[in-house]
Request: fold
Amino acid sequence: MSTSVADNLAQVSKDISRMCRHAGAPDVQPRLIAVSKMQPEDRVVEALEAGHRVFGENRVQEAEGRWLPLKERFPDVELHLIGSLQSNKASDAVALFDEIHSLDRIKLADALKKEMDAQGRQLPVYIQVNTGREDQKGGVSLEELPGLLAHAREIGLNVVGLMVIPPVDDDPTLHFALLKKLAARHGLARLSMGMSSDFALAAAMGATDVRVGTAIFGNRA
Ligand SMILES: *Cc1c(COP(=O)(O)O)cnc(C)c1O
Reply:
């Protein structure tokens, strides 16, 4: 891997384009979310100076510490929350982030909607699905997805898509295919899937958002 963040960003984008062409969908490039969690500040600034503006973080407090100052210098950044969220942090999350990828329960849906109304910010939301049936993982079960989606729509959340983190030891192909099928069944357009190890595969399988950390920034601290 090259060590320059700018070079890595260019390489990842190139790999995504190549896979989309290969899959016969050259015009639907997924959005590249650069996952900056636990990365040194200078690497993140390098990405910003290279012109990248879309970033992902998995913890609200850590993200605030980093991005409240950086947003002064780069006001057009777009921040995605990709990690699990406690209901009592919904207020801070809605204030900082532009999109939320990790809705996985009714209580959180209610907390988010209440904060979005209070702050006048109706953020796009993805429901995270636990396709691997892993107990300790975030994400709603396949059985509970329809109920959660119906509730979220009923209270007026802007649910735009589904998100998945496949179990590390599984072939991600089946999880990506399942996510795509579920999204189509429920009339959801966006698919947040693919990380450093499998973003090209995800792009070829119809991801609209890929979340890439180490392939851009190097190993986390
Ligand atoms: C950390 C993280 C990523 C990025 O992982 P890499 O392997 O570094 O690309 C993507 N999605 C989620 C939900 C994450 O927590």
